[in-house]
Every structure is written in C-alpha cells, then in structure tokens.
Amino acid sequence: MAMENTISAKAAGFAQRLAVLLPLPLAGAYDYGVPEGLELKAGDFVRVPLGSREAIGVVWGEASGEVALGKLKAVAARLDAPALPEAERRFIDWVAHYTLSPPGVVLRMAMSAARALEPPPPLLAYGRSALPLAELALRLTPARARVLALLEDGPPRGPLELAREAGVTPGVIKGLLAAGALEALHLPPPSPFAEPDLAHPGVALSTAQAAAAEVLRARMGKGFNVTLLDGVTGSGKTEVYFEAIAEVLRAGRQALVLVPEIALTQQGLARFERRFGVVPAAWHSGLSSSARRTTWRAVAEGRVKVLVGARSALFLPFPDLGLIVVDEEHDASFKQEDGVIYHARDMAVVRARLGDHAVVLASATPSLETLENVRQGRYQVQRLPERHGGASLPAITVIDMRKETPGRQSWLSQPLREALAETLGAGEQAMLFLNRRGYAPLTLCRHCGHRLKCPQCSAWLVEHRLIGRLQCHHCGYSVAAPRDCPACGASASFVACGPGIERLAEEAQQLFPDARVALVASDTLGGPEAIAELVRQVEEHEIDLLIGTQIIAKGHHFPMLTLVGVVDADLGLDGGELRAAERTYQLLSQVAGRAGRELRPGRVLLQTYRPDHSVMQALAAGEREGFLAVEAKMRREARMPPFARLAALILASHDEAAVERAARSFARTAPRGAGIEVLGPAPAALALLRGRFRRRLLLKAERGINVQELLTAWLARVELPTSVRVTIDVDPMSFL
C-alpha cells in the first residue's frame, strides 16, 4: 500500500503522500502531498493548508489514500523543530482511544507552546578576524589592544560582555568591527538549564532509605516496570527516588517528576538543588509564555535532563525518557476533569510502557487502585515504615465535638485552644487546617432565610471578606455582597453561616493577638514566587500560625511545626462519593504528617462530630492496613473500582428540556449484557453548572469488558441535538 501511494503520488507531482494530524477536534489525520525536494518523516512538524488558512500539524504516517489525487493539497513547509518522538505519538493515539477523545485534541496538549516550534534566534558574538593587523587601516589604541588580546586566547563574546570584560565602550567594539579586526558570529543560544551534578553530595540516607534506593537503582534501564514507594510522611521518599533519577541520568536519559500541585514544586525544587547542585526545569500553569516556549524546546531537544511538573508535563515531547516519578500518586489533583479527561498517574504508567522504561509511584497513603495492582503482582513495592532522622510520627487525638462544643460564633474547641496556646508559648509553630476557602460557605438573610446562590450553578456563593466579594467556586461568578435582601428587601440582614479559613483566622487572631498568622489557599497565593516566599517565611520562623486548605496538607517540611489542628475533620465525608472515606483518610493523614517532622515531637487534634467513624478510628489508632482492608472489602462487594470499571456520560445544555430528552434517549439505548449495568439518568450533583443543565448516566462493567467499545456503540445509537453536549469520563474520580 505504501509503495502504491508513493507511485501514484509521484504521478501527481508529489514525492509521496502522508497523513498529517492537526491539533484540532477533527475525526483523524488528513492526507497531504509532499512536494519534490521536501523530505519528511513521521513526527515532523509541518505547515499545511486547511481551508482558507494554514495550520501546523505533525506527520502521523502513511496517507489513508481516501483523498483523490486531484484534490490532494501540498505540505507547505517543514518546521525547524525536533520531530515528535514515536513513543509520544503512540501515547497520543492511546490516550485518544482510551478517553474517546479526538486525537488532535490530545495532540494539542503536546503542542502547548506553539512558539517553541520556531528555533530561538542565534546569539550575536564577536571573534578575532583572521586578517593580519598589518593589512588593516587600524590605529591600535590601548583600548583596542585590550579587546584583541581578550579574544586572542578566549572564545567569542557578545558585544556587551566583550566591552565589559575589556573595560571599553561599545564604540571601541564597533570601530574594530568596521576596520575588519573583528568578525560577527551567530552562535546557538546556551542551554537554559544546567546539567545535574551526579557527584554533588546529597543527604546521608538511612539504612532503610539506602536499601530502597539500591532496589530502585537496579530497576532503572531494565525496561518497563512499576514500583510503589510506600513510606510514612517524613520517611524521606524524595531522597530515595532521587537516587533512581541519578541512575537514569548516568545512562544519559531523561527523568520526569510529576507533582499534583504547583505549591509542591517549590520545596521539591530546593531539595533537588541540594542533591544535584542545580534547579531542575519546571512545568506548571504559572510559567510565563516565554518560559513555556524555552522549556518545551529544551525538552524536545534533549537538553532538559530532569523536569518537575504538574500533570500536563506528561505530554511534553521527551525524546529519551528513562523514568517517570509520580509523587503523591494518590492525589485527586492528578485527574483532569475537563477537555481530555484523564488521570495522570494511570497515563504515566501507559507512557512508561510505550517507552519501555520505569515508573515510581510515591505516597504515604497509596490509592486502593495502586495497592490492588501491587496485590495482583503488576507493581512491585518498597516500604519505608519509619520517619527519617529519628523523628517519630505525631500522636493523633480525636476531639468529640458533641461534647466539646465551642461557644457561639466560635469554631475552635477548648482542647485545641489550649494546645495552640501551649505550642505558641513554647516558640513553636502550629497549623490549623480547614478545607474551605473564603470567610463563610453560606450567606443568608436572618429575616426571611433567603440564601445567596450562584445564578449559573447549583451552588451557594462563598463570602470572601478580604476582597469584599461573594464568589462561586465552580464557575468563578463574583458579585459584591448586597446590602439589601433581594427576596424580602430587609436592610443589612445578611449573616455568614459556617467558617472558611478567613473566619478561622479572625478567631485565631482574637485569641492570640501577638501570633503572626498566614492564610494559605489557592486564592491567597499569587504563583510560584509567592509560594516560595511563604515557604521561606515559615522555615525562618517569621510565621507562627498557618491557617489553610489542602494546598498546605502535603509535601511540605517545616521543622518547627509541632501542632496540627483539623477544624472540620468530617468535611470530606459528606456527599455520598465513592471514595469519600478513602480521600478523607488520605487527606487527614497527609495533614497530620506536617507535625513533628524532626526531633521535636508532634501532635494532631482532629475535631469531629463522628468520632466513631472508621476514618477517625483508623487515624487515631494508626491502623492504615485495617482501614484499607475494610474499604477494599466494601468496594469488592459493591462491584466498584478497583474491582470493576466505571464510565460516566455527562449531558449538558442550556436547554433543560433538551438535555432531559437526550438523557432518556441514552437510557433507552443503554448497553445490556452479563457484567454490565447502567445507572441513571439522574441530575448531576451540580445539576446546573456554568449555566448548563446536567444529567449523568453511569456505566458499570466487570473488569475485562472493553468499556470503550460499549461507549462508542452507545454513542452511535443516539442522535444528539446540537444544543446538547456529551462528555465521557472513563474511570471517573468525581461524581459532581
């Protein structure tokens, strides 16, 4: 077929025909002709005509032959950029098939820095001309002599650098250039990222750490394998997987470290610098467009040896990836919930299998999915059961809020207040954790009970008193707090109900007016610089009390922080989510792990109205394995992941009647058979989101059943109106 394509293409004036995938939501790759004299291979970035414009795409392989030669359009040009690696192209196809997304939309994630496809401009430098000075009409002044002497034994230099080192003005350089004593050179720009120093002395590893590191090192370069690094908080998992990274670097390959949140990159980058002497490349949403362009290009050219990044870093075009580390592998932030819906942890394993290299999954609270893969023998495991450096795990105490009721408009129990006073009085640091941003989650009228709600979502507006606004945390809608109730007209009648971290800070400041308090949430930190500054302030004890959401719950190491108070430990248990108990256990374990990281003993106080709940009991007793065994048993009996497959269909439309009709059509045509069950349709938990009415159906299938085939056939049986949008979420983590 390939030879026939080439022969027929030449007959039409083309050297060959190739398929080009465009980063657009199209059905697949398009056929194009390759003009004579233009050599292309799979993975090359090309500019091609598309309708009345040109677009940039990637050569994906041989043409389908479905386009008549007379209608075939020619590739306009090949771009001067490294080709997209084969493993990356296979990964894009795999993700598209698994998530039922157009391949071009997945490709768009890999082309997230379009300007990087243009080579950076060369650097202007000046070198010594080969012409003898005697042949030049040049009066050799002392300043000119210094410039020539500097270049005689040294490399070419940029004009400003040359003038500075020779101690002359730019005019002297221009004069030498005009006389022919210097020649202008265009040099490639230097690598923006320094090479990690493998000989740089790192921290001393404990016996357990050294043993785990040795096992990981032995697995590098041995093809595809997955290892769970299961270590308690503070056990030094990061230092262990650094040794695996070092082994990969010795082999000349690249390494990728995925972290769930941008906040975790800051201390991680500092730890990397302590181990390897340089800061690694970073990739996250806070990068400027210039930094994204530089980093993308350096990755594609193999000049980035180690990159630390958020989930989207998985789609960067690494030409020689040898290891992917997924830190905090259990974290729900690895799941992308819009666009192409995927779980970065699971896709990292796929990327490693396609690239035939290693994966390390690190966590103090591994997910049930990962633990089941260990049990089945698909993954190997290395455990670190003790904290590093002689530190001990904190003591966890459950406070029964049914008995320790705070006063009116107060949220801190008496035991927690006393513990805070004792900790701050001893010159140590404390943390209050509440996974709720803003001042109050609900604002209502004291006269008529009217609640302020988002006009675009099924959600209450959250008061943010620091900025004087009410906000929706789902769609971003924001409005100034009204003075009068829109329902009854009462003036100044609105009251805040329940606490957010701003309200908690207000109470803490009243109790401890001399304490230096910092609020930490996604909307109080402006980016990497702000996060780095916060970490510095905590480490240098410029802050006494941290009050924050889950952004401070994991990854951070603060030696003077000895007390953690969880204000509403029950918060994540509501809502009927499949993983509610597991996630709550993981989150509270991670929060608790911030206390007592070094030789000072730590303690954790959990305020709960459900002290008998399995999560609270397991945390207090340190019974992780027992809790996980019970959770696994419940999931197995209910035929739920990881012991079954799930896929969600979410229908959305501005027209509620249209989405309801579409949902009924899907219900009538739902797949049926042994091991298959379809639940719904039902209104989504957020039945209105961003102005769209939403209905959900849930496909449940036994493991081994190809849910992608079922979904594809199901979608083909329903003719959707253009006003209704359907989203497929394979392996859903959230049911909102």
Can you describe this structure?
With 736 residues, the chain is of the alpha/beta class. It has six domains: 2-111, GIY-YIG endonuclease, CATH 3.40.1440.60; 125-187; 207-389, P-loop containing nucleotide triphosphate hydrolases (Rossmann fold, 3-Layer(aba) Sandwich); 391-436 and 500-633, 3-Layer(aba) Sandwich (Rossmann fold); 438-498, no CATH class; 644-730, Alpha-Beta Plaits. The protein has 20 helices and 31 strands. The chain has a seven-stranded parallel beta sheet with strand order 10-11-9-12-15-8-16, sandwiched between helices. The chain has a six-stranded parallel beta sheet with strand order 17-27-26-18-25-24, sandwiched between helices. The protein has a five-stranded antiparallel beta sheet with strand order 2-1-4-3-5. Helix 2 crosses helix 3 (103-110), helix 4 (142-152) crosses helix 5 and helix 9 (263-276) crosses helix 15 (528-539). It is globular, with a radius of gyration of 30 Å. 43% of the residues are buried.
Q: Which architecture of the largest domain would the CATH scheme give at its second level?
A: 3-Layer(aba) Sandwich
Derived from helix and strand composition plus strand pairing, the structural class reads: alpha/beta
* Beta-strand share of residues: 15-25%
Unreliable parts: 1-7
The averaged pLDDT comes out at 90
| Count of discrete domains | 6
State the share of residues found in helices, binned by percent.
25-40%
Q: Under the CATH scheme, which class of the largest domain?
A: Alpha Beta
According to CATH, the fold-level topology of the largest domain is Rossmann fold
- Name of the CATH superfamily of the largest domain: P-loop containing nucleotide triphosphate hydrolases
Instruction: Characterize the largest beta sheet: strand count, sense, and whether it forms a barrel.
Output: 7 strands, parallel
Please, how many helices?
Answer: 20
Please tell me how large the radius of gyration is: 30 Å
What is the global morphology?
globular
* Spatial gap, N to C terminus: 48 Å
Number of DSSP-assigned strands: 31
Strand arrangement in the largest pleated sheet: 10-11-9-12-15-8-16
